[in-house]
Amino acid sequence: xxxxxxxxxxxxxxxxxxxxxxxxxxxxxxxxxxxxxxxxxxxxxxxxxxxxxxxxxxxxxxxxxxxxxxxxxxxxxxxxxxxxxxxxxxxxxxxxxxxxxxxxxxxxxxxxxxxxxxxxxxxxxxxxxxxxxxxxxxxxx
Length: 141
Fold this sequence. Notes:
Number of strands: 7
Protein name: Heat shock protein Hsp20
Family: Belongs to the small heat shock protein (HSP20) family.
Number of domains: 2
Organism: Halobiforma nitratireducens JCM 10879
Shape: extended
Order of helices and strands: HEEEEEEE
Keywords: Stress response
Pfam family, one: ArsA_HSP20
CATH architecture of the largest domain: Sandwich
């Protein structure tokens, strides 16, 4: 039986999505293939040492009072998490038996890193910063 475009109305759409995802992931040793049964599997970015960007989610919430960074770190023990901040970038380093995470999160505005507080519960890391005070003017004499 000859394959007709009417049999697969979304075939062109899926091919274009595959092309764009493969282009976006180039250099990451991944290859998206929607034709395989069950969707992406081994060799498609779900292996170990992929860190953030593969299957970890990071959210940044910026309000008047605080900047909140929420990151999913599944399978990581609290003792295996290191956090550093220079006021503009939050660095999250973490490891589990199967993964290494090393993420640099650009914050939406300067924060006071000395007021930071962090909690980790059930694989979810939450770091809260106070915004940095506006810089004071410098008088020229």
